[in-house]
User: What shape does this take?
Amino acid sequence: MPALGDLLYALTEWLRTTPLIELSLWISNLPVSLIIQRNFWAIPTIQTLHILAIAAAFGSVLMINLRILGIAGRGRTMTETARRYLPWIWWSLLVLVVTGFGMIIGEPVRELINPVFWIKMVLVIAMILASIGFQATVRRNMAQWEVTHDGRVAVRVGAVAIILLWCAIMVAGRWIAYAPV
Assistant: This one.
């Protein structure tokens, strides 16, 4: 079985055969990209905002899911918990999208020709789809939780899955800096 590094290297080599190279080079010559590249503080500032937004979003997701699991927030109803943390999630996601595009524009080759970046994007899509399905399940069972503070096993498994997906996304985001490009 090939090592993880060998798989990442092979994926990088494949990415180099796609139009992503030309797209990356085109983006890197855009005026906004040149401004980001020329200002040494731009990328660290964008990354810092990105990390802070991840902390806010993941902390909020964690609190909602820990409430679902009955580990934290038992003194609040699910409605109260959702009302408290959902705005933090949505505003954080907006910051994540803006700063994510900023990092892509600032360092397009590092991002778009990076296999870990694409693994992270697949995980983000999986998390979005899982979250949409999970949110629908939570809404269907909200009344039950308001009375019994207990969710079905599938919903609890979903809560754990969402937490694990977020963790995998954060790990992949950190590994972007170390993948072969």
